[in-house]
Design brief:
The protein has 124 residues and is mainly β. The protein has two helices and seven strands; from the N terminus they run βββββββαα. It has helices at 92-104, 111-115, and strands spanning 2-4, 13-19, 22-32, 35-49, 56-71, 82-85, 89-91. The strands form two sheets. It has a five-stranded mixed beta sheet. Strands 1-7 form a two-stranded antiparallel sheet. The longest helix has 13 residues, at 92-104. 12% of the residues are buried.
Length: 124
């Protein structure tokens, strides 16, 4: 789902975006001419690799997301996550893909390795 930055309303608007095996749904609204607030939930399943044995495993997602979208470069010392939008187009598929990539790059240990009490060999 894509929407032009300038067409975002100031009152919260509900949205649902399906991407791959996940769904991003929530609300978005314009806070200022250059900032949009997004409050959403990412649900579904994603496949990840175990860092110990390399086996692929599906994990269930139920992540609450709160972030701001900026029309261009945002120069402020904010503690909020700010995603800079290029060309004035908000692409929710791209946001979902970015969140999935972030989750996949995290360290995951599969259920089999969690139950295995064998120590991991370390190289020093």
């Amino acid at each position: 789902m894509k929407i032009e930055f300038r067409k975002v309303p100031t009152t919260p608007k509900e949205f649902t975006n399906n991407f791959a095996s996940v769904k991003l749904e929530g609300t978005f609204c314009k806070m200022s001419p250059t900032l949009i607030k997004v409050d959403a939930t990412l649900t579904g399943q994603s496949s990840v690799l175990c860092i110990r044995c390399g086996e692929e495993e599906n994990i269930d997602l139920d992540e609450n997301l709160f972030f701001l979208l900026s029309d261009g470069i945002y120069n402020n010392e904010s503690k909020d996550l700010i995603i800079e939008v290029e060309d004035g187009i908000i692409d929710f598929d791209q946001i979902c893909e970015s969140e999935l990539s972030s989750l996949e790059s995290d360290y995951h240990i599969c259920k089999s390795c969690l139950e295995d009490n064998e120590k991991i060999e370390k190289e020093f």
